[in-house]
Amino acid sequence: MTGSGQSGEKPQGQTGTAMASEGKPRNRLYVNFIINLIGALLPIPVMILTVPVYIDYVGDARYGVISLIWVMIGYLGFLELGLAPATINALARLDHSDQRERARVIVTSFTINASMTFFGAFLLYLLGSYIVGGVVQVPVEIEDEVKATMPWIALLLPLVILNGAGIDAIEARENFALANVLQVSGAIFAQILPLAFAVFVSPDLGTVIPGAVLARVLLMVAIFAAINRIEGPIRFTDFDKERARKLLSYGGWVTISSVLTPILGSLDQLMVGRFFGVAAVTYYAVPLNLISRSQIIPGAISRAIFPRLASSEAEEAKTLSARVLVVTALLYGGICASIILLMDPLLTLWLGEAFAERARLPATILVTSIWLNSLIFAPYWLIHSQRRPDLIAKLHLGLLVPFAGVLILLTMQFGIVGAAIAAALRSLFDFSGHLALSGILRRVVLPLALPFALLAAATLAHLTIDDWLTAIILACAVWPVVALLVFLLDRATFNLLLGFGLKPLKLISGRGDA
């Protein structure tokens, strides 16, 4: 990742300048990336430490139900009506000094979000017990807990969506430092508070879920206070019907995609729960969530790139997207290859040999699936910046039925391993479709073959070696290969990363000279 969006016109090694329009002071893109990267890293140790305690105190069945709760909330995320990219796009195109118009965008977006998500909460309350108790197999001893907890589960939906909308509004100004402070503190608190309720009060879902609700209420208060400070004064009378029409017009096709994306992304977990029970979901979802936490690099760049693309010219946006995609594929490919090689020791040391024995093979397959899925961000936001969200919706419509059929067949035949294979195939076709629709496929297809080959080699090595020492050595050997590929494909990014890596040595050397 570099600080320049005009890679083809700058001398090698030059990091470039921000591509903001006049009157909009912005950080260099790599600065925003680093801020987002730090924000993504901080909650990971908390998650690693708390998940085993969660499973120990609440049990694998209750933890499986908690995982499915988030799946249901993800399904109803379409009630956001595509307002997240629409709002970011609208705010990114407005000058920072245009306070009243920015306030109209924010209040209008939040009002629509609140109306729809509280309707969704009511829908979730009505249907949630059936989904968790009827579609998937829930042990009889916790059925009453699930039903009694449904009002709290329903309340999570508007809290999660409104908190996300608030963070989006802050990021549209490229104030990623504030956004990350709020998001990280909220994520850590939301992980610890429910666990504290489980440990010190009761492992009953009727105790744990209200803890999650309370954590997100406090986060919402903090987010809205921050927005009012940087964009305010915010007034309810700032709601604008014409602005609502424009936002909903942009978000129409995004809404269709928002309905389909969580289905495509989590149908595998539902099928595992449907055929094998919620306890089996734990052996699929826990390594999936762990691997997903490795998405810090693509996630950090994804949050930084859309406001920049929205304010760039079409060709400049394509150049930036292609360059960012290739570098991200290499760096995140190195992380994923290392995870594949270290899968056995990671799972064994974290959750024990018995858990690792059941989870290691599907987890290994899911790494490649998540690598592909994580790279979608570049063509995805490029398509949005071109104001063609309809293309993404049509792609997902075309994928849904074939993926569901393949998933059912493979899951019934091979269990959670089959579900992981189906997820990997879906990610491959989804990513390929995004590249073709965005117009950058020819620019990136050959460079992307290199990190893909690296992951294939790591998978082959993982399947053939059986001792941890060899796995650790090979995982370390991945990074010289990644460094060489970055050097060959993007010298400016290599120089930037090398500069960051040498800074500690320069500081130590400077102190020694003093």
Structure description:
This protein has 514 residues and is mostly helical. Helix content is 83%, strand content 0%. The longest helix has 37 residues, at 99-135. The chain is globular, with a radius of gyration of 23 Å. The relative contact order is 0.12. Mean pLDDT is 80; it is low at 1-25.
Summarize the entry for a quick read.
This protein is an all-alpha fold and 514 residues long. It is 83% helix and 0% strand. It has 19 helices and no strands.
List keywords for this structure.
514 residues; 19 helices; mainly alpha; disordered N terminus
**Share of helical residues:** over 70%
General shape: globular
Strand content: under 5%
State the end-to-end CA separation.
Answer: 34 Å
Would you count the extended β strands for me? 0
Q: List segments where confidence is low: pLDDT < 50 over at least 5 consecutive residues.
A: 1-25
* Largest sheet features: none
Number of helices: 19
Question: What is the radius of gyration computed over CA atoms, rounded to a whole number of angstroms?
Answer: 23 Å
Order of helices and strands: HHHHHHHHHHHHHHHHHHH
Q: Structural class, please?
A: mainly alpha
Mean pLDDT: 80
